[in-house]
Amino acid sequence: MVLLPTDRMDSLFSPRCVWVNGPIIVGAGPSGLAVAACLREQGVPYVILERADCIASLWQKRTYDRLKLHLPKQFCELPRMPFPDHYPEYPTRRQFIDYLEDYAARFEIKPEFNSTVLSARYDETSGLWRVVTSAPAAGGDMEYIGRWLVVATGENAESVVPDIPGLEGFDGKVTHVSDYKSGEAYRGKSVLVVGCGNSGMEVSLDLSDHGARPAMVVRDAVHVLPREVLGKSTFELAVLLMRWLPLWIVDKIMVLLAWLVLGDLAKLGLRRPTGAGPLELKETHGRTPVLDYGALARIRAGDIAVVPAVKRFAKGSQVELADGRVLSFDAVVLATGYRSNVPQWLQVNSHSNKLTTVPLQQQHWSESDQSMSN
């Protein structure tokens, strides 16, 4: 990239502009790193913009201690560099971070950290993308200009906090799962976990492991699948079947296997969606199936309670549920997901073919509230 002086091409560029000879990549998570590595291998210049001060900030700063990949490592490795042989089949959070840092070092990926994208628009007159960032460390706003824009920010940029009546008046501690680290801080306490996705299930399990009394809110129907069937990853099995069978048949096989392995979950308060299968729901609505590896056993044992939707938070520490019950809790963990922040800054027009978005294969079954996979 080349920093243009303010007295050149004033008709096209504003002050503090950077011309990028190759793609402008937004996001230094796994997808952004993979794109950068492949471009470098082909000798293509690029710039990678990252709003945090490190790579893979979701994994480094907003994940809980016990987090592991839910998918086998061969489905989660980045291009041109496999996981180390000594890594387990499901690497831990720390192992995955180490892998990503080694990946960035190997391919000499050096993002522009602390660069928050404020806007990105395609200039039809010049045929170029203009990406404006807030970069206090660089002395103010910067504008990056180039022919290509790659959006690699993932689905989990912003925490989603639901608007539940009375939540702001709850006496106990309220934490979004992005700030949750360990159940140790909740030992001996009753905790309401709002959300039953992969994060909700795993946080409930973690709380139970640390001697807390979790109650998990299950508002909607959800597909729960075993993480493995006969020692084989459920995801791997689905990928294999998809090579030969249409999606709707694979969905039926997945649901049948889940029923055979996990039993009738309706008895536990977990309803399966009617009609659409787990793969179809992920494909059409972005709703990820939950992969179980321990939470259901705790629910059956009574260590994790399942409760219906929250109607409102009453005075003090009381919570009124949809079925009319009023229960008291010491704390609340909101496992209510994330959303993309791309619509806030990306100005899309008829030239969106100049834009590339980059999902990774492992995100297909990732929990939308915890990046990649849990």
Which descriptors would you attach to this protein?
374 residues; alpha/beta; six-stranded mixed β-sheet; five-stranded parallel β-sheet; 9 helices; 24 strands; 23% helix; 24% strand; disordered C terminus; NADP binding
Indicate the topology.
Layout: E1 2-4, E2 17-19, E3 24-26, H1 30-41, E4 47-49, H2 57-61, H3 93-106, E5 116-123, E6 128-135, E7 140-146, E8 149-151, E9 158-159, E10 173-176, E11 190-194, H4 198-209, E12 213-217, E13 224-226, E14 228-229, E15 232-233, H5 234-242, H6 247-262, H7 278-285, E16 290-292, H8 295-300, E17 305-307, E18 310-313, E19 318-321, E20 326-328, E21 331-334, E22 338-339, H9 342-345, E23 346-347, E24 355-357
Parallel strand pairs: 2-7, 3-4, 3-8, 5-23, 8-24, 10-21, 11-12, 11-21, 12-17, 13-16
Antiparallel strand pairs: 1-2, 5-6, 6-7, 9-22, 14-15, 18-19, 19-20
